[in-house]
């Protein structure tokens, strides 16, 4: 059920126009969510499954994404990456996700976005907005990043920041962005800790964020960042719980 809620943040009035409150049970709502299936990138170790409740399901009012230590399709771990690709696109507005994170060495949960034109332009030209990233070997640090053709980690120029959050694996926190034509603001529990500004050059290499993006929620296992100090196999299974996903447009 979609509740039309008005909120005000830093003087901006927002109206809720799309959400998933996860007030049902079973697989994620296929009118809102799809999956990436297969092995991912960044030397990650998990196989992302599709339509498999062991890895992605809704129960007790939460979206549950679960990473499991098991042999599957040649991988040693399974997990899920759910996304709104070709279901719902976002352009400007406020996007917030209330979640409790997995933890342990080797975990790499993320709430992030990619340009809907990724298949045409490829990454990083399509633009990437990382609303929340966390790595299990540094469990109390939340990261925000953006990636563009000019600013990305492969060339050491990505733009971002971090904030300490006490035990994000024990408690739910609200991870959010507010996306405007001239800047992006990043929040945890209403505290703004990073802004990225449009330089006004009209250059897609620095600001590709004037075209729609889709939302992604996943747990990666290992990889270039999450696996920097290996993977602790004793921690599995690990879950990310998502209470809700909400999208607000400016009134």
Plain-language structure description:
This protein has 251 residues and is mainly beta. The chain has a single domain, classed as Jelly Rolls (Sandwich). 3% of the residues lie in helices and 49% in strands. The chain is built from 2 helices and 19 strands. The chain has helices at residues 118-121, 223-226, and strands at 6-9, 12-20, 34-36, 38-39, 46-48, 56-59, 62-72, 75-79, 81-83, 93-100, 107-115, 128-133, 141-147, 159-164, 173-179, 183-188, 191-197, 213-221, 238-250. It is globular and about 50 Å long. The two termini are 21 Å apart.
Helical content band? under 10%
Number of helices, counting only DSSP H or I runs of 4 residues or more: 2
Main pleated sheet: 12 strands, mixed
- For the record, the CATH architecture stands as Sandwich
Structural class: mainly beta
How many structural domains can be distinguished in the coordinates?
1
CATH topology: Jelly Rolls
Q: Which CATH first-tier class would you pick?
A: Mainly Beta
Overall outline = globular
Whole-angstrom Rg: 17 Å
Report strand %: over 45%
Uncertain segments of ≥5 residues (pLDDT<50)? none
Mean pLDDT level: 95
Query: What gap, in angstroms, lies between the N and C termini?
Result: 21 Å
Run of helices and strands = EEEEEEEEEEEHEEEEEEEHE
Question: What's the β-strand tally?
Answer: 19
């Amino acid at each position: 059920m979609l509740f039309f809620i008005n909120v005000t943040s830093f003087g901006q009035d927002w109206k809720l126009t799309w959400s998933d409150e996860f007030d049902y049970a079973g697989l994620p709502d296929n009118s809102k969510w799809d999956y990436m299936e297969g092995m991912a990138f960044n030397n990650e170790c998990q196989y992302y499954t599709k339509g498999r409740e062991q890895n992605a399901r809704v129960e007790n009012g939460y979206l549950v994404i679960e990473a499991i230590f098991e042999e599957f399709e040649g991988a040693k771990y399974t997990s899920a990456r759910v996304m709104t690709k070709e279901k719902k696109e976002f352009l400007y507005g406020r996007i917030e996700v209330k979640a409790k994170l997995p933890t342990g060495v080797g975990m790499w949960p993320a709430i992030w976005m990619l340009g809907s034109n990724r298949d045409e332009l490829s990454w990083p030209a399509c633009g990437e907005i990382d609303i929340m990233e966390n790595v299990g070997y540094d469990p109390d640090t939340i990261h925000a990043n953006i990636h563009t053709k000019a600013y990305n980690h492969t060339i050491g120029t990505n733009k971002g920041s971090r904030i300490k959050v006490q035990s994000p694996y024990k408690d739910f926190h609200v991870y959010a962005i507010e996306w405007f034509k001239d800047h992006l603001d990043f929040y945890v529990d209403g505290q703004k800790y990073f802004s990225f500004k449009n330089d006004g050059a009209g250059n897609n290499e620095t600001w590709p964020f004037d075209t729609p993006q889709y939302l992604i929620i996943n747990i990666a296992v290992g990889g270039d960042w999450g696996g920097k100090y290996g993977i602790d196999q004793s921690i599995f299974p690990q879950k990310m719980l998502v209470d809700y996903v909400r999208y607000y447009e400016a009134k």
